[in-house]
Design goal:
- This protein has one domain.
- The strands form two sheets. Strands 1-4 form a two-stranded antiparallel sheet. It has a two-stranded antiparallel sheet with strand order 2-3.
- It has no helices and four strands.
- The chain is an all-beta fold.
- The protein is elongated.
Length: 65
């Protein structure tokens, strides 16, 4: 089994709850490459688990994936 994280910039979604108007939450999205997200474990980014049945999906060459 292999556990991996993607080191590419990733999209972050935050939900701001409206203090002035309860129930008026606003979602904000942005792309970040902040290296602090890769400090871990545990990591702030999604960890992908590859078992022996999914090893064929792993490739060092993005053109092969």
């Amino acid at each position: 089994m292999i556990v991996a994280i993607c080191l590419e910039p990733h999209e972050v979604a935050t939900l701001d709850a409206g203090r002035d108007a309860p129930g008026a939450a606003r979602e904000r999205r942005h792309v970040t490459g902040d290296p602090s997200w890769f400090t871990g474990p545990p990591y702030a980014v999604l960890e992908e688990v590859f078992g022996e049945d999914s090893m064929q999906d792993c490739s060092p060459d993005p053109e092969e994936g």
